[in-house]
Each structure stands twice: as C-alpha cells, then as structure tokens.
Design brief:
heterodimer; A: mainly alpha; 10 helices; B: 418 residues; Cytochrome Bc1 Complex, Chain D, domain 2; two-stranded antiparallel ribbon
Chain lengths: 205, 418
C-alpha cells in the first residue's frame, strides 16, 4: 500500500517535470517539434544557428563584410570611391556635389532616415539637444544653424560616412544615396530652426 | 577721500566679479558649441582632457593654438609637435572665428572645472546603493529562524496528539474498537463496489474518463506549448536594457535594427553601432569612476582601449553572441521590410511593449493562427503608399472603402510556405 502511494507520487511529479520542461520560459526555448523543419539546412545570410557554426567564415559567422572597394547595386552614381579616410580626405571631400536631386521624395526619405539615425543626439529640431544630450549622457552637439554654414555638403558626406570627432560612422548603416538624402534634409535647418515642413510620407520616386 | 577710494575699489571688485561670472557663462556656451565634439574637462575623449590646461601652456600659446593649431605645429613648436604625434597626427580643427576674448572666456570656464556638468557625470549618487534582492540579509535570517520555530511547534503538536489519542484508547477500549471496525467495512464497500459488480463497465468508464481528461489536456498542450516559444527570455551576453535605450532615450528601433526596412531580417546591430555612442558613454558615474562592466564587454569584443580612447592595433575582434529570441520556423517565410516599410506595421504589434522590457521576452505565440488573424483584420494602407498605386485606383473605381490583407491574397498558402 505504501509502495503504491510512493510510485503514484513519483509518476505525478515526473510527469509535471516533463511537461513543465516543454514549455518556454527563461533560458528554455521549450520543446521543438520536428527541428529539421525549423532550422534552415543552408546558411542563412543574417541568421545564426548557435549549434551550427559556419565552417567557412571566420568566427563561425554567416555574416561577412562586403569585399573591399565594391559598390552596391544602384549606388554607382552616389558612391564616392576616391574618398580616403584621412584628414586630407576630409578636405578633398569639399569638391563633392550632392548627386541626388532635392526632390520631394528625397527630402521625405531624408527626414525619415534623420529621425531614425540622427535625432538621439542632434534632436528633432537640429539644435543638438537630442534625448541623450538633454539627459547629460552625451556632450552638447553643435546646432545645424551654427555649424552647417562653416562646412559644405561634401564634408557633411564625409562626416556621416566615416564619422568625425565624437560622431560615429554611419557608412555601415546608410547607403551612399541615403546619406545624400539626409544631407538634403539637414540643409533645411540652415535657414530655419523649426522642424522643417517636409512631407512625412514617402510617395513617388 | 578715503571713502571715495574705498567705494571705487568696492565697485571695481563687484564689477570684476560680475565680469568673470559673465565670462564663465559665455565660456560655457562657447565650450558647448565648439569644443565638446572632441574634448571633455575631466576625461580624454577624441582630444586630451582639458583640466588644468592653463597650467600646461601660457594663455597666449593656447589662443594661438585654438585659433589655428596647424600654424603652431608648422612653426616648429616642440610641445605642439609632441601633442600632434601623440594623437596619431589628427589635427585639431582651427577656430579662426573665435576672438581672443572668447578663447579667454572658454579658458575661464575650463578653470571652473565645468561645475555644471561634472555633477551629472562625475560623482556617484546616493541611490547607487547595493541591493541584493527583495529581502535584506537580516530579514532572510529572521525568516529562516521563524520557519525553524514553526517546524518545531508542528513536531511537538503531532507528538501531543499521538499521546492524547493513546490515553483515550486505553481509557475507552470499546469505543476505539468500534471506530476501527467501521473504517474497515466502509473502505471496502465504497471503493470497490463498482468493480466487483461490473468489472468491465467499471474499467471502461475509468479508462474513458482518463482518456478524455488527458486527451483534452494533451491537445491543449500540444497546441499552445510544443514548438511555441512564447515567454522565452534568455540571458544575453550583455545585460542590455531596451527599457533604457528605446524607452527612456527613445532611440528608434531601426537605429540598431537597421535592416528592418531593407530585408527579411531586422538584423542584430554590429558592435560598431554600439560604439557610435559608447566610445563616449561609459556610465562611470554608476560604477565609482570605472567603465561599466557591461559596456566593457563591447570594448573587449572590438578591442577598444577605453583609457586612451583608441582601438588596439592588430586586435582579433570577436562577435558578441546575442541569443536570438523570436525564432520563426524555417518552413514559414516572413519578411520584415514587407511589414515595416510597405505595411507600416509598428514593431510593437508583433514584439510587444519592447520599450518597457529590461529583459526581452517573446510576447506573441508566432503561431500561424496568430498571423492569419491579423491578416484577416488588418486593412492595407493604400492611400499614402506608392507601392499600392494601382490597387488604390482599382479600389476607388469599385467604390470600396478598404481592402484587408486577406482580400489582397494574404491567406494564400504559397505566400508564406514554399
């Protein structure tokens, strides 16, 4: 009789333990049904399977840097392949002209990208009072109205692509054409300190 | 006469004090507008820390240097050339627009040690006290002692009950026997009545009951738990808080997950994205002037020397192994760009209130029924969408107000499974 009770207790507790280990929570992703349908057989470019390190690339990563000196498709008109990442390169960038027309679409795209990538420091109004600056975590950033007249579009392109002083490089996040769109948008702060009246939607190319 | 002189001196003193006050305020403004992109007062940033800069060089030298540093270097000044080499020949921007007086006011501000800013950045605040958990240590010991006392009381009470029962049985033996017999008879009759009379029916009935209960439970379990990772909240290699970055500082999701509008994956940011801010932000105030151990992990991965503000040459960089949380099975296709850029769906619609999470957990089941449900209800935003120009025209022609994703082919099998 006593043995019976003990065996029932073991059965119940073990079944609870088994079922509990199947549901996800904390570090446990839960039980997977048919894992060979869940995990890609090939290497996915931006997905990393922890248990399947890439045997070809360094560090077992699927992701790789693009080959040096290559230009992405569609970026030939915007890329500046002669720009060196040196002090001379910065000065030489002055000769660059913005190849993208200041169209409604480019301005709107520039605004969208600006609000994603630039506002934490430069602020939505371009005064240099973004959220992390306002909280004192990051040093004061010059306002566009003050700083932009002292540089030109080419130098702005260099600064965004490679970073300048404390500003980080955005060449890995933004394509050259997108950088030119952002430059079109920030140029609107030269004349006014208010948030520029640029359409929010990205209609028409 | 004497009084006059005294008054004059007093006036001069106050005027002078007022002037220096104005200088400092003016200097702070100029410092923030021109210098902070490279310099801090107490920390080395891109350029050297500026504390006690007036003791290193004369005012005249500093004015010349700030207005045109390259000219000073070219003039063969020893100190300038040493500095230029030390900072990998990165020249300081020339500030010809700053007048002598303005440079002086900046120097006056630096002399104050940046009184306004150091309070925020430098000294640790009282709130950074160490807290081990919900209960303090004394409280935990107290609770433990309390639990032990309770156990002892229970033990004593059960002993007393046994002894009292024994005494009772000895005093009234007939009564005790009666109770025993009653228990024995009842036990048998109630428990096994069904099986003794109808063994087959009994077994079937119990079996059927078990099948229904366990089957329902198992069905529900298989539906909602197996292969569903809702609630998955793994420990990440760096204790990164979305609540701080996306919540408090309102940094756009796509600042880090930059390919969410470009391709299938939203992408995990590379360490260079972290370094955009964290070359400067080290959270020293919270860790008694040391670099935060979590931020240090980024530096360890990319080989950044926080002391000198430079990347270690020839360092073998290591990836940070973030743990992926939302794992859609490979047999279901999902594209971020399609939903973020064309569909204009908020990130939170599928990922939950990320901006409030210190540790991210999967909030939605990501099951097919959940996808389908949204496709049935969501209306396609055709009006402001270049992508759906033709569809918008057709809709207008047929006098319809809206079209759901499902009506636009969002339920077809091969859209997601191929």
């Amino acid at each position: 009789m006593k043995l019976n009770k003990i065996s029932i207790a073991i059965l119940v507790s073990s079944s609870i333990a088994i079922f509990a280990s199947c549901s996800a929570g904390g570090d446990n992703p839960g039980m997977e049904y048919a894992p060979n349908m869940y995990h890609s057989f090939g290497y996915e470019p931006l997905t990393q399977e922890a248990d399947k390190p890439n045997t070809i690339n360094a560090n077992g990563m699927n992701m790789r840097l693009p080959a040096e000196h290559t230009i992405a498709r569609g970026q030939l008109d915007f890329a500046t392949y002669n720009l060196a990442k040196t002090a001379e390169g910065y000065e030489a960038a002055s000769s660059l002209k913005n190849p993208a027309p200041a169209s409604v679409y480019n301005l709107a795209e520039g605004k969208r990208l600006f609000n994603i990538n630039c506002t934490p420091c430069h602020g939505e109004d371009g005064q240099g009072n973004g959220t992390i600056v306002a909280d004192g975590k990051f040093p004061k950033v010059p306002s566009y109205a003050e700083r932009l007249p002292t540089i030109n579009d080419g130098k702005a392109f260099y600064s965004i692509k490679y970073g300048r002083n404390l500003m980080g490089a955005y060449g890995t996040v933004l394509t050259p054409s997108q950088i030119w769109q952002v430059i079109h948008y920030i140029n609107t702060y030269k004349t006014s300190t208010a948030v520029a009246a640029v359409a929010d939607t990205t209609v028409k190319k | 006469m004497k009084l006059n002189k005294l008054l004059f001196l007093l006036a001069a003193f106050f005027l002078g004090a007022k002037l220096t006050m104005a200088d400092v305020a003016e200097g702070e403004k100029l410092f923030n507008a021109n210098c902070t992109s490279c310099h801090a007062i107490n920390d080395k940033v891109v350029g050297p820390a500026l504390k006690d800069v007036d003791k290193r060089q004369s005012e005249a030298w500093l004015i010349k240097w700030i207005q045109n540093s390259q000219a000073v270097i070219k003039s063969g000044d020893e100190y300038a050339n040493k500095l230029y080499k030390e900072y990998n020949q990165s020249a300081m921007t020339a500030f010809p627009q700053l007048k002598d007086d303005q440079v002086k006011s900046i120097l006056a501000y630096i002399k104050t040690g940046g009184a306004a800013t150091t309070v925020e950045n430098g000294t640790p605040t009282a709130t950074a006290k160490t807290e081990d958990g919900f209960y303090s240590q004394g409280m935990q010991i107290g609770l433990l002692i309390f639990a032990v006392i309770l156990l002892i009381i229970i033990f004593i009470l059960t002993k007393i009950r046994k002894v009292v029962g024994k005494i009772h049985d000895e005093k009234y033996p007939e009564e005790a026997d009666e109770i025993k017999i009653h228990w024995k008879q009842n036990k048998k009759s109630t428990r096994f009545k069904l099986f003794v009379k109808h063994p087959v029916v009994g077994t079937l009935a119990v079996g059927a009951l078990l099948t229904v209960v366990l089957g329902l439970y198992g069905y529900d379990y298989g539906q909602t738990k197996v292969g569903v990772q809702k609630g998955y909240a793994p420990v990440q290699p760096i204790n990164y808080s979305h609540e701080l970055h996306a919540g408090k500082y309102k940094i756009n999701c796509q600042y880090c997950h930059s390919s969410a509008d470009k391709g299938k994956q939203a992408s995990i940011p590379s360490a260079s994205t972290c370094m955009n801010c964290h070359t400067y932000v080290k959270a020293k105030a919270k860790y008694n002037g040391k670099v935060s151990p979590e931020i240090q992990k980024i530096y360890n991965a990319v080989g950044y020397d926080a002391q000198n503000g430079t990347y270690i040459a020839g360092f073998k960089q290591q990836p940070i192994k973030w743990v992926r949380i939302h794992n859609l099975p490979d047999h279901a296709y999902f594209n971020h760009a399609q939903h973020v850029k064309i569909g204009k769906v908020e990130c939170q619609a599928c990922h939950g209130p990320i901006e409030t999470m210190k540790v991210v957990s999967q909030q939605r089941s990501l099951q097919m029924g959940w996808c389908i449900n949204c496709h049935r209800e969501a209306k396609v935003d055709v009006a402001n969408n270049d992508y759906y120009e033709k569809l918008h025209k057709d809709l207008k022609a047929s006098n319809k107000d809206f079209i759901t994703v499902a009506q636009n082919g969002g339920l077809e099998c091969a859209k997601c499974h191929y």
